[in-house]
Design brief:
By secondary structure, the protein is α/β, with parallel strands linked by helices. The chain contains 2 helices and 6 strands. The chain has a 5-stranded mixed beta barrel. Strand 5 (about 75-85) and strand 6 (about 85-95) form a beta hairpin. The chain is globular. The two termini are about 25 Å apart.
Amino acid sequence: RPMGDAPFVQHGVIMYLDELLGKGRSAVGSVRVFGTLCSVDLAACRAVIEHRGVQLSVDTSQLVNHFFSEGKLLQFIGEFSMDSVIGPILRARVMRDLDGIDLEMFDRALQAKREFEAEAMGHR
């Protein structure tokens, strides 16, 4: 471990909400997702994001000093799990504002990244 006894934190695999929820229980782990903030309940530390018609509940209890504004495009990095009571949830540890990002360019860059990684894995 590079920092003594500190646990290693995963970077979060970039996934679209439909991909993440389509994988269900097999997608448990560290992920990076984005979506438009639909609703936020500050008292319950819960937010809901949406992208392409798919929604995901986000536990925001680890996020401090963040301002939540409905309608903003946000990215979250955290741990995804299927909770037996509340269903799919992302326990966010990082949030950033993506308002103004060119989503078409993001889609093309992610596709190129995935193609490169697939090709690199094939040459091992």
